[in-house]
Fold:
Amino acid sequence: MDNKPSISVFFPCYNEAAAIEALVEKSLKVLDKISDNYEVILVNDGSSDGTAELADVLAAKYPSVKAIHHSRNQGYGAALQSGFRAASMDLVFYTDGDSQFDMGQLPEIMPLIEDCDIVSCYRINRQDSFIRKLNAWAWGKLVCFLFKMKIRDIDCAFKLYRREIFDNISMQSTGALIDAEILARAVKAGYKITQTGVRHYPRTAGTSSGANPAVIIRAFRELLKLRKNILHTQNNSPKRKRRDNNAQFE
Structure:
């Protein structure tokens, strides 16, 4: 990109003490190359493994890093909401604190945001169990059907947004439905989405909560409620002119 945009990068973290220091240090090196004005936000979602203390240490060590803490575990969606609301730069990017994605690929997707509002990535050679991948495929098909979307990997935690989107859409989900909600509301509002693939790596530390039956049941219960809320609610006029009357997928 000819001009270096300002960018907020945040990581939702729940018991990720083993991974976040290396992730932050690599992120700072990447961001130094692509932006002159950036911030890194660590969203500690009620961790009990030392993540909170480490986040504060990193925030004290690096001026561009700040830590946000939930006093108790509120859920993935709540962590993302806190990150998006804390972001102050023109662009906002997030990925999970478990280091299953390579921050080194962020410069590769940055040029794509010039012609769209959201870059929604999908995992190449997803490093999860067969059952987890099957569940994710079925979930993605269902969500896309219900909300009339064409998203290849709904829950891929490697996404880049124009921050102004979050001035014009609401976020209610505090659990695993959050990615689907944001994309569905963006589609409803007419924002343009492009998609590209990114590498995915095995988890080496921490524990995933995505396959927890309670998390899955909660997501399905909230899904139908969300569909009714989004599809039967009139669009609010955003503060800027939309790129098109209808959302586009590329």
Summary: The chain has one domain: 7-249. The longest strand covers residues 38-45. Strands lie at 7-13, 38-45, 65-70, 91-95, 118-124, 158-162, 192-199, 248-249.
